[in-house]
Every structure is written in structure tokens, then in C-alpha cells.
Amino acid sequence: MKVIIVGGVAGGASCAARLRRLDETAEILMVERGPYVSYANCGLPYHVGGVIEKESSLLVANEQLFREQFAIDVRTRCEAIEISPKEKTVKLRDVATGEVKSESYDKLVLSPGAASVRPPLPGIDLPGIFHVRTVPDVRQINEWIEKGSVFLSGMHKYSGFQTIRPKTRAVVIGGGFIGLEMVENLVHRGFEVTLVEMLDQVLPPVDVEHARVVEAYLKKHGVRLALSDGVAGFKQAANGAIDVETKSGKTYPADVVILALGVRPDTTLAKKAGLEIGERGGIRVDDQMRTSDPDVFAVGDAVEVKDFVTGQWSLIPLAGPANRQGRIAADVIAGRKSRYRGTQGTSIIGLFGAAIAWTGVSEKMLNRIGDTDYEKIYLYPNSHAGYYPGAKPIAMKVLFRKSDGRLLGAQALGEDNVDKRISAFAVMLQMGATIYDLEEAELCYAPPFGSAKDPVNFAGMIAANVLKGDMPLSHWNSAKTGFLLDVREPMELAVENVPGTLNIPIGQLRARLGELPRDREIHVICRSGQRAYIATRMLLQKGFKAKTVSGGMLSLAHNYLFDTKKG
Ligand SMILES: Cc1cc2nc3c(=O)[nH]c(=O)nc-3n(C[C@H](O)[C@H](O)[C@H](O)COP(=O)(O)OP(=O)(O)OC[C@H]3O[C@@H](n4cnc5c(N)ncnc54)[C@H](O)[C@@H]3O)c2cc1C
């Protein structure tokens, strides 16, 4: 059996190596248009930031390793330019010489990835404007940055030459995860960074209240944000800089511009070959990664996948899914019955020592598809036992089905151990867990690492209280217009309070029930929701209509204070 794999990075390289492990006899040819196979594109922003110092560290495996360890014929700088599914041949072009050869296949795997979006804006090809996709892209960015401004060109080479280098300015366009990683790394490298984003929030997959916290955090680290503003074009300024002009009429001068406007699946070959393209513009595959032609498989950023929670077709360009899909395609080619379960979009981004991570659906996605069978909770547990030094709060939002408690999604941000919480949610979500399963999850605990009730358990317990009716829940949008009871201590109110709220500290509540209305819903607040829950239990048992405001004052801050439009 002869298998040709197009694309030699995440999906392609995983497929090739797995196939060899399963089948010693297969003839495997992997072609890669670029100069490298199996490089770490996820590490590229950190090479610009200088965190990953050597370019060679990004090269995870090379052609020699594939040849020697796996007996795979690897050809770099070799582009697949045409597929003939009828004849089962692929035309391959040597990028250096232009020579074209035809190779036959029994099975073909496409893992061509995605292309960076590069709209035809005026001036987009000016020198100093880059995107970040490959090792050569990053090499060009580094060379450009190191060249300095036109005034300083070459001076960095002279040791002992004292010169004041003007502060360099960078504009990053696009507030998705690659954009934000580039922002962080350019700040790390000493740039004044402006982030221009057309939407009214960064990180489109997360809900706006989480995005607001991220935006506040970016501002705290000196990043200038230009939200709700699209780029109109670029102009060469007289001093060698680039003027980035936006649709609102603003101009941001930059010494380097990074385009991070998202990616679109690379379907050039697939379209030409007549393979089915899906409604989202990716190659349509079944759950065994087969395209509309049973002998052609496709994996990675180029394909459309089913969203694990909504069941809808979606484009989720992430390394984990690409690797797993490559492995599944190899399994199926080797005669195994592996199937892809769908993508949850589990992601994480590190930002200036903090992290934001998510898995599953967001609330805005549920609203977009008209799904109302959900409830959400906000919680702010410590990353580990509060009495052990170094604990940091984690802001969490968890979404679950009202009807059966099934976990739908979770988002978390904080400065410590955010990743392990979202990873736990991600695994449970994929296993079809309910919030009752979260309650029961047995997770690692010792004081430096967690709490006896881990944040994941805690989320389950709160959500279960809600669904069992033990803790009727409300959120700030309705609570603000209802009767608010604050059960915090007066000194806490001195720091922050909601005007018009009745304050009865929790310790006095039993004695002061007469001050509360029996004919109205009482929305109970405290700092995080914990004391409010205790008060709610007490009031419910005394016959009041009480509800706990999810997340208390912390979620008020989370939902409103960081709203840049209001502040
Ligand atoms: C800067 C950056 C940071 C990222 N960070 C993360 C992260 O932190 N976490 C995460 O999960 N994901 C991250 N990703 C996304 C992740 O890298 C991709 O989802 C993953 O690499 C997709 O794998 P793939 O095999 O589909 O495509 P790729 O890995 O992009 O590989 C496709 C390869 O196919 C080659 N090719 C295309 N057409 C042809 C052709 N006709 N002939 C021959 N070769 C061809 C291309 O040259 C390319 O090298 C990041 C991506 C980038 C660019």
C-alpha cells in the first residue's frame, strides 16, 4: 500500500509516524511545501519574544529522523499541486527547480493546514507588515526588529557603541489567541504595543465578561487597545514607520505590524480535486477523517469538524485536534476502527503570568443557536488551600444543562493552575459528565496544589445545589432591579456596596427576619456567593422567596466593572 501525505507538520507528521508504527510494509511519502517538517508553530510567538532563544529549538523532528526511524520518504520544498482522484495520482512540484512529477497513491492524506487571512487592504504589502505562521515568517520578523529603525540600521552590531534607541512601537491586528500571544511577546521584547480588533472584545470564543478581564489585564501591562475598530489600510510614513489607519479614522504609527486576523482552511487542492467542501469552508470529512472520496483523508486546520457540544459543523484550528485526527486517519488506513469524537475547542492562553482557558460552548454561542436549556454559575475559588502561601483566585464560569445537568462548557482565568482545572472540565465534558459527576470527581489534593474541595468539585456542588432547588439562583441583571439583601459585614460595605441594598450581616439574620419582605423575591449577595448561599438556605426554610446572586460582588465586578464601555 502506498500512502501520500500532503503537509508535514502537526496532522501530517502525526499521521505518518503513527502509520509506520501500525504498518511496517506501507510505502509512505510525506511532502511539505516549506523547508521544515514537524516544527512547533505554537512556539513561534515565543521565539519573537526571545523566550525560546534558538530557532533550532522549534524544529521538533527533521527529515533525517523520519527517514531513519520511520523509513518515511520525506520531501521538503515539495508542493502537491494537483490531485487526480480518478487516476489516484498527485502532481508534485519541486519548489526550487519547478520540476513537476506525478506519484500514484492507494491512500492520500491531506493536512495542508490553514492560511493566514490577509485582506487586500491598501498598503498591506509594505515592508514591516508580517503574519506568523511558519519558521521563516518569524525569522523575517526577528530580522526586521533587529535591524532597528532606519536611523539605527546596523548599529546594534557595534559593541560599545552607546546610542539611545527610540522606543519601538508595534501594532498587532486581531485579538485572537495568536494576536494576544504576539502582544505579550512584543511587550516582553520592549515594544509599546497597540492591539487593534474589529470586534468589541478580545478572544472571540470566550464570553464578554471574561474578555473584559483580559482586556483590563492587557491595559495593566501597558497595551493600548483599539476595540470595535477595523483596519482600513497602511501607509508608509516619512520616518520609515508604517501608519496603521483604522476605519474610525485613527492612525497608529508602528515600526512593526503583525497581522493576526485569523486563518481560513487551505482547501485549494481539495477544491480542485472536486472533494466536498462544507458549509464553513473546510474540507468535509466523516468521523474517520474520510473526505467525499473514500481513498482521500483530510485532517487538521483544513477540515470542518463537528462541535462536540452543539453537534454543528465548525472550524477549530488547534494543534491537539490536528494531531489526534492525523492519528485517527492512520488508524483507519491501517484497518482500525478509530473515530473522531468532535472538537470541544479546549484552549489556553498565557498572558503576563496569568492564563485564560476554556472548553466547550460559551454562553454567547448558546444564545446564538437559540439554546435556552442552560444555567450558568460564577465562582472564584482559590487555586489551592487559602492558608498555604501563594494561593490565587480563579475566576470561573461554568455552563450546564438545566434539564439534565450535563456539563456544556467552562471558562477560567487567573494566575495559578487555571490549566489543570479547565483540563479536568475538558475531560469530563468529553465523557458526557454532568455537574453531579463534577461533585464526585476525585482529584489530587495537598495544600500546595488544591483544596479538599477542588474548584472543579466546588463548581459541581454549586451547580448541583442549583438544580436540586437547594439554592435558587439569580444573576446581576435581574437582581439589580429586585430586592437586594447584602449579608456581608459593614466594613466590607465600606469598600464596595450596591446602593439601595438592605444590609443584614449573616450573624444577625435570624434575629432580623422581620425586616424582610415575604411577598417579593429576595436576591442575596455577599462577596463570592458562599455566605449568600447559607443565608438563602435559612430564608427558604423560614418561608421567604430567596435566591443567591451567583458569584456575589465578585461577579458584579467581573460582569460590569471591567466593561470598557462603562468605564
Ligand atoms: C503562531 C501560532 C501559534 C499557535 N499556537 C497554538 C497553541 O498554543 N495551541 C494550539 O492548540 N494550537 C496552536 N496553533 C495552531 C496549530 O499550530 C494548528 O492548529 C496545527 O498546526 C494544524 O495542523 P495542520 O497539520 O492542520 O497544519 P500545519 O501544522 O499548519 O501544517 C500544514 C503544512 O502543510 C503544508 N502544505 C500546505 N499545502 C501544501 C501542499 N499543497 N503541498 C505540500 N505541503 C503543503 C504547509 O506548508 C504546512 O507546513 C498555533 C498556530 C500558529 C500559527
Summarize the structure in words:
By secondary structure, the chain is α/β, with parallel strands linked by helices. 27% of the residues lie in helices and 25% in strands. It contains 16 helices and 31 strands. Helix 1 runs parallel beside helix 8. The chain binds flavin-adenine dinucleotide. Flavin-adenine dinucleotide binds next to helix 1, strand 2, helix 2, strand 4 and helix 8.
In short:
This protein is of the alpha/beta class and 567 residues long.
Assembly category: single chain
Percent of residues in helices comes to 25-40%
Q: Could you say which structural class the secondary elements and strand pairing correspond to? A: alpha/beta
Widest sheet: strand order? 3-2-1-7-19
- What is the overall pLDDT average? 93
- How many separate helices? 16
Shape: globular
The number of strands is 31
Radius of gyration (CA) equals 27 Å
Percentage of residues in strands: 15-25%
- Give the ligands present: flavin-adenine dinucleotide
Describe the largest sheet: 5 strands, parallel
Low-confidence stretches: 156-165, 561-567
